[in-house]
């Protein structure tokens, strides 16, 4: 069996769990099959609908003409394409959703987006608002959102996943993905590697009866994960097999989110670092803008380092009564959130997110007692799930990703505060919440930045300098 065939079989098996995607074609030299994929997904006994192409200048240059030709050859009529300029880079903002939506509204047809993260999310939400299905043609192994349910869009300054259906059809040509700029592939590695501590966060939430692990969905993400990132040097070189593995891991992750109707299987506190920085506009004025996956990769290093500190503590001896005594009232917690120097447009949403996961003292006591009782076995499960932060940092450096906050202009004080502030912006339960509730978050973060700690032992480098 060829590697392409084996990969396709794995994806087709996972596709059975999907709720929205009916057709997924992934392999080498499959771009020309876009027309047949379109016909399979959207054809009816009375004929084929027309298609509306959406791209930007870069994605149109690498695949626009080929996709259009494949659709025409299959007998699909094409409307006027909507093409964003190559520069400046398109931002995942709701005003761009509105631009695409109004273009689509002007004529009937199935949206066909040629592009990766941002373009896919924009079209996903715009199509849903018009109650249309759509097809995506992948152009880079840069994120897991191709097959994912939901779109990460900023509206009113607050970035959150807007829940909307995944594409009905996906075309992923591994040759095209391997030829993408290295920074986009590095972004994909950053997005994928976060599934490791995100799995740890889900283990915690499951153990504490907050959010139960769905075993089938868990395996969709976690089973291919380590193999997908096992050879960063080959990924960096654009090796076809390594890019295939990375792409499969990203697609499987997206299918898992689709099956779960939530980003929980693939997104933990490492993503919260990225979302916070995106709300603050970090890297937005760069060209190209600092990508989501680059920030997520740094968040992954950060959380794996925090897990190492937490796992060095014996929470089986946690002083529950002392933690409960230190726990703020809701009024005090709200004051804490409002005093965290979040962007004004983010503060109200952060207060609401924090309110959703706040516990009164009696409920907190019961949770911490459960944590204490379960800790020996729970710590063992977490150690088996995680990779060392230094290992993650090395892999990301190898593919050319961001590995230190100073590379993106984040000074030490701001970065240190991110551990505390990121906990506030999502109701999703993660390690950050465990440590906050146990009255250990500030202590554990301080250890990271102390002399000899993970961040304290690393020099604060100049922007652009990469860890060896």
Content-based structural category: alpha/beta
How far do the termini sit from each other? 38 Å
Fill in the CATH topology of the largest domain: Dehydroquinate synthase-like, alpha domain
Q: Largest sheet, if any?
A: 6 strands, parallel
Count of structural domains: 2
Order of helices and strands: HEHEHEHEHEEEEHHHHHHHHHHHHHHHH
Oligomer: single chain
* Arithmetic mean of pLDDT: 93
User: How many E strands?
Assistant: 8
**Helicity level, as a percent range?**
40-55%
Shape: globular
Contiguous runs where pLDDT drops below 50 for at least 5 residues: none
Strand content: 5-15%
Report the top-level CATH class of the largest domain.
Answer: Mainly Alpha
List the helices and strands and how they pair.
Elements: H1 3-15, E1 23-27, H2 34-42, E2 51-56, H3 57-73, E3 82-84, H4 94-105, E4 110-114, H5 117-129, E5 135-137, E6 151-155, E7 158-162, E8 169-173, H6 174-178, H7 182-193, H8 195-207, H9 215-228, H10 232-236, H11 240-260, H12 269-279, H13 292-311, H14 320-326, H15 330-338, H16 344-357, H17 361-385, H18 389-399, H19 412-421, H20 431-437, H21 441-449
Parallel strand pairs: 1-8, 2-3, 2-4, 4-5, 5-8
Antiparallel strand pairs: 6-7
Helix pairs in contact: 1-11, 2-3, 4-5, 7-11, 7-13, 8-17, 9-11, 12-13, 13-18, 13-21, 14-17, 15-16
């Amino acid at each position: 069996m060829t590697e392409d065939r084996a990969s396709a079989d794995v994806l087709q098996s996972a596709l059975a769990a999907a709720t929205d995607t009916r057709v997924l074609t992934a392999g080498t030299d499959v771009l020309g099959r876009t027309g047949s994929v379109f016909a399979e997904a959207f054809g009816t006994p009375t004929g084929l609908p027309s298609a509306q192409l959406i791209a930007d200048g870069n994605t149109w240059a690498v695949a626009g003409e080929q996709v259009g030709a494949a659709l025409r050859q299959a007998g699909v009529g094409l409307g006027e394409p909507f093409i964003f300029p190559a520069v400046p880079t398109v931002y995942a903002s709701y005003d761009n959703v509105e631009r695409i939506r109004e273009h689509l509204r002007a004529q009937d047809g199935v949206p066909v987006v040629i592009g990766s993260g941002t373009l896919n999310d924009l079209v996903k939400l715009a199509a849903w608002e018009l109650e249309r299905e759509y097809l995506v043609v992948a152009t880079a192994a840069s994120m897991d959102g191709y097959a994912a349910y939901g779109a990460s869009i900023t509206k009113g300054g607050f970035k959150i996943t807007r829940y909307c259906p995944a594409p009905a059809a996906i075309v992923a040509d591994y040759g095209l993905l391997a030829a993408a700029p290295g920074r986009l592939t590095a972004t994909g590695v950053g997005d994928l590697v976060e599934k490791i501590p995100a799995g740890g966060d889900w283990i915690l939430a499951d153990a504490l009866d907050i959010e139960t692990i769905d075993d089938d969905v868990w395996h969709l993400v976690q089973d291919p994960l380590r193999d997908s990132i096992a050879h960063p040097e080959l990924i960096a070189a654009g090796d076809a097999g390594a890019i295939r593995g990375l792409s499969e891991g990203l697609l499987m992750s997206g299918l898992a989110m689709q099956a779960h109707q939530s980003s929980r299987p693939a997104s933990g506190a490492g993503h919260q670092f990225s979302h916070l920085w995106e709300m603050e506009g970090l890297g937005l004025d760069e060209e190209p803008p600092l990508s989501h996956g680059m920030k997520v990769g740094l968040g992954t290093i950060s959380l794996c380092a925090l897990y190492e500190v937490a796992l060095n503590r014996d929470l089986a001896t946690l002083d529950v009564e002392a933690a409960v005594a230190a726990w703020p009232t809701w009024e005090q917690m709200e004051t804490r959130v409002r005093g965290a120097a979040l962007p004004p447009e983010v503060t109200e949403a952060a207060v609401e997110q924090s309110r959703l996961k706040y516990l009164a003292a009696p409920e907190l006591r019961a949770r911490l007692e459960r944590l204490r009782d379960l800790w020996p076995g729970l710590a063992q499960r977490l150690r088996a799930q995680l990779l060392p932060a230094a290992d993650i940092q090395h892999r990301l450096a190898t593919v050319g990703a961001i590995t230190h906050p100073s590379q993106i202009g984040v000074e030490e004080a701001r970065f240190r505060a991110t551990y505390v502030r990121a906990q506030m912006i999502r109701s999703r339960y993660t390690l950050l919440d465990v440590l906050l509730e146990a009255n250990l978050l500030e202590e554990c973060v301080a250890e990271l930045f102390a002399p000899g700690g993970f961040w304290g032992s690393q020099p604060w480098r100049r922007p652009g300098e990469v860890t060896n």
